[in-house]
Amino acid sequence: MIKTLVVAFSSGALVLALLSSVAPPLGGNEASARSCYSIWAEAQKMGSHYRHRVFVENDCEYWLQCSLWTDVDPQPPVMVSVGPGMTEHGETSGSSQYSDPKAFGACRRK
C-alpha cells in the first residue's frame, strides 16, 4: 500500500511538473489585474440587426489596457484603455443578426 501511495504521489508530481513547464508564465501585471476587472457584452437592437459592445469595468487602482472580442466577432480584437474606477466599451460589430454575444477579453496593467 505504501508503494502504491509513493507511485501515485510521484505520478502526480510528474504531471504537475509537466504542466508547469508547458503553461506560459504569468507576469505580475497580468496575474494581479485579473482579480479587479470584469467584462461583459451587450447587444443593442438597431432596426433589423444588433450592435455588439463589450464593456470593461476597472476596479483596479491603476490603468488597464484591454483587448476585447465576442464569440460572434473574434477578430480583430478591440483595444481600449480603462482608468481606475472607470467603465469603457468597444464596439465589436455594428451589424449582426445575433442578439446574445458572449464577451471575451484580456487586460494588463498599463
Tell me what the structure shows.
With 110 residues, this protein is of the alpha+beta class. The chain has one domain: Immunoglobulin-like (Sandwich). It is built from 2 helices and 6 strands, in the order H-H-E-E-E-E-E-E. The strands form 2 sheets. The chain has a 3-stranded antiparallel β-sheet with strand order 1-2-5, with no helix packed on it. A 3-stranded antiparallel β-sheet has the order 4-3-6. The longest helix has 21 residues.
- Helical residues, percent: 10-25%
Over the alpha carbons, how many angstroms does the gyration radius reach?
20 Å
The CATH class assignment is: Mainly Beta
User: How much strand?
Assistant: 35-45%
Distance between the termini: 53 Å
Largest sheet: 3 strands, antiparallel
Which class of secondary structure composition applies to the elements?
alpha+beta
* Shape summary: elongated
Under CATH, the topology is which?
Answer: Immunoglobulin-like
Low-confidence sequence ranges: 1-28
Q: Which second-level CATH architecture applies? A: Sandwich
| Total count of domains | 1
Biggest sheet: strand arrangement: 1-2-5
Characteristics:
110 residues; alpha+beta; Immunoglobulin-like; three-stranded antiparallel beta sheet; 2 helices; 6 strands; elongated; disordered N terminus
